[in-house]
């Protein structure tokens, strides 16, 4: 996939997630209005109590940019539209995970410092990612042609 399509589809994934977040806020507002009507209250909760346009717009723009960034960074690894949208939708977590890789830390911090030596340019020390043991691969049972047991 070329980089422009990867970035565009990644941004679409970010927009989809932001639309889901907005929908959740509107549904919460709807539920609050129904509770207020059932309680026979005269004043119903306003939509502004659940949606903050400046903050929500800033969050939406940042999610779109992160989605586009993830799509752009991974464009050579992504082979389809759905994968690009998924990368954009999961961009904050995906980029956070990529940033925690040891090689990325070394590049950002300016090389691999010796043990006990700290890079003075790094303002935050990120702990190393723990290694996870691999699950043992069990041989598949021989196919007998019978269904169920």
Characterise the protein shown here.
This protein is an all-alpha fold and 149 residues long. The protein has five helices and no strands. It has helices at 3-38, 53-73, 81-89, 91-99, 102-109. The longest helix has 36 residues, at 3-38. The radius of gyration is 23 Å and the shape is elongated. It starts with a helix and ends in a 40-residue tail after the last helix.
Strand and helix map with partners:
Elements: H1 3-38, H2 53-73, H3 81-89, H4 91-99, H5 102-109
Helix pairs in contact: 1-2, 1-3, 2-3, 2-4
How many helical stretches?
A: 5
Strand content: under 5%
Task: State the helicity in percent bands.
Answer: 55-70%
Number of strands: 0
Q: What is the first-to-last residue Cα distance?
A: 45 Å
User: What can be said about the biggest beta sheet?
Assistant: none
- The H/E string reads HHHHH
Low-confidence stretches: none
Kindly report the average pLDDT value.
Answer: 79
Classification by helices and strands: mainly alpha
Using brief descriptors, characterize the structure shown.
single chain, 149 residues, mainly alpha, elongated
Short structural summary:
The protein has 149 residues and is mainly alpha-helical. The protein has 5 helices and no strands.
